[in-house]
Amino acid sequence: MLTKNRITAVQHDSNVCADIQGFDFNDYTADDIATVRDFWLQYGVIRFRDANISDQQQVEFSAHFGEFVIHPKQLQEGGHPTHPEILVISNAMKDGRPSGAMGNSEATWHTDTWFYEKPPAGAILRAVQVPETGGDTYFLSTYQAYETLPNHLRDAVAKRQIFFQSAYDKTGKLRLGKTKPTSEDFREWVGMVHPLVRKHGETGRDALYLGGTAEGAWIVGMPLDESTDLIAQLWEHTTTTDDVFVQQWNAGDIMMWDNRCTMHRRDSFDPNSIRIMHRTTTAGERPV
């Protein structure tokens, strides 16, 4: 437990998340925001239980942590009717069409929009309506993933860059605005190159950066078979850790994570249940 400026962070035993207590979304100061930011940077993931705030309050709170980023899904089915800063994640239907993004399926381990030149720094996700079971969200630390690498893997990733194709999403669907590639070699497709180990722009700590999938990823300059094998080892190392925080949602809960040093995933849930989440996303720097 750590208290600063009347706000307390209670660390979860997974070492990935801390519960924030004593922050009042209806009455906070610049010092309060600075304290929340300190905890966010320290723990990587923070949680506000039963915050029960409005969309407008979420937008106002999020604005203190950077400029807003429009998630790709906000340009499709996930747009909010009155707050363009909010991505609606929902499996509910309206007039026969999805009223939000992502449906009820599982979302596997990833960092958000890893194929951007400047992936977002943070995300703030608020539960509006949740099913009785399922739809849990899991978090892990990519600081820890890097710091616990065996020596031979740490040597293998040193000063390496990783290429992520950006033509197709994880489901194999062509991304909005992208053209179907003509080459069968994904390394020739449109994509983004980032360091395989990125230095956090604010904390200065090193974190392993694997993006969102091993498919369509290539360690630049390495023979493809060697790259595929190394990436598989890195994913195995990163995602088999016991230090995972599991968020079992209550309506009103808010999770805030640092996209530069964490990965997350989501369980599927019964399609006959309704899950509605409102998310805001803040801008980050280009990984170095």
UniProtKB/TrEMBL annotation:
- Domain TauD/TfdA-like span(s) in chain numbering: 18-281
Q: Which InterPro entries match?
A: AtsK-like (IPR051323), TauD-like_sf (IPR042098), TauD/TfdA-like (IPR003819)
Any one Gene Ontology MF annotation carried by this entry is: dioxygenase activity
Mind telling me which Pfam families this protein's record contains?
Answer: TauD
Highest taxon listed in the record's lineage = Bacteria
**Coiled-coil ranges per UniProt:** none
Write the record's keywords in alphabetical order, separated by commas. Answer: Dioxygenase, Iron, Metal-binding, Oxidoreductase, Plasmid
Regarding protein family, the annotation reads: Belongs to the TfdA dioxygenase family.
What is the protein's name according to its record? TauD/TfdA family dioxygenase
Q: What is the lineage of its organism?
A: Bacteria, Pseudomonadati, Pseudomonadota, Alphaproteobacteria, Hyphomicrobiales
